[in-house]
Specification:
6 helices, 4 strands
């Protein structure tokens, strides 16, 4: 068999693999660009010190549970930043209405809560939808609220506050109300 025929067979055999590799590279590039755009928005809401801390933690791999830096203050802050980026990507009603600048906001006072406590964004603002951190209750200790009002807009915060308000508005608009 001639060399050209062998090369043609080899090209044909590896074409699908090359196409898969190129597709994966294109997808990785698109995800990088998406993450970089989200980081640009988030970084604009953070203090420079917090932003440097997040970049440093990411560079050391602190987002990986196997990393020794995973449960450090910087690792916790990094994970909350990455969680916000994921929330932007995978939202459901009514949170699809929340602006990306709100979803990705990490004001300094919120970043400090994540640095000082093992807090999670379990409450939200009924007005703007910002996810507000609380420290969940553990070992007989009650949950700890860190903010009485939204750190972004000053609105009322609570468990599913944004959803509950939108649901009540939708029910009122459609004439559906729950009778006591």
């Amino acid at each position: 068999m001639k060399l050209s025929a062998r090369l043609a067979r080899l090209e044909k055999a590896t074409a699908s693999t090359r196409a898969l590799v190129e597709e994966a590279q294109d997808q990785a590039k698109a995800e990088r660009e998406e993450r970089d755009a989200a980081w640009a928005i988030m970084q604009g809401t953070m203090s420079q010190g917090h932003a440097r801390m997040v970049v440093g933690a990411y560079a050391t791999g602190a987002q990986d549970i196997k990393s020794p830096a995973y449960n450090t203050p910087a690792g916790r802050l990094l994970r909350r930043c990455l969680d916000a980026m994921d929330r932007l990507k995978y939202r459901h009603w009514p949170y699809t209405e929340v602006a990306p600048e709100v979803v990705l906001a990490m004001p300094p006072q919120v970043a400090e809560v994540y640095l000082d406590h093992d807090a999670m964004p379990l409450h939200n603002c009924e007005d703007c939808g910002f996810r507000v951190p609380i420290t969940p209750g553990r070992d007989g200790k009650p949950a700890r609220r860190h903010f009485d009002t939204c750190p972004l807009c000053g609105g009322k915060v609570g468990w599913y506050a944004y959803f509950n308000r939108r649901k009540a508005e939708a029910d009122a608009a459609s004439g559906h109300t729950i009778q006591p």
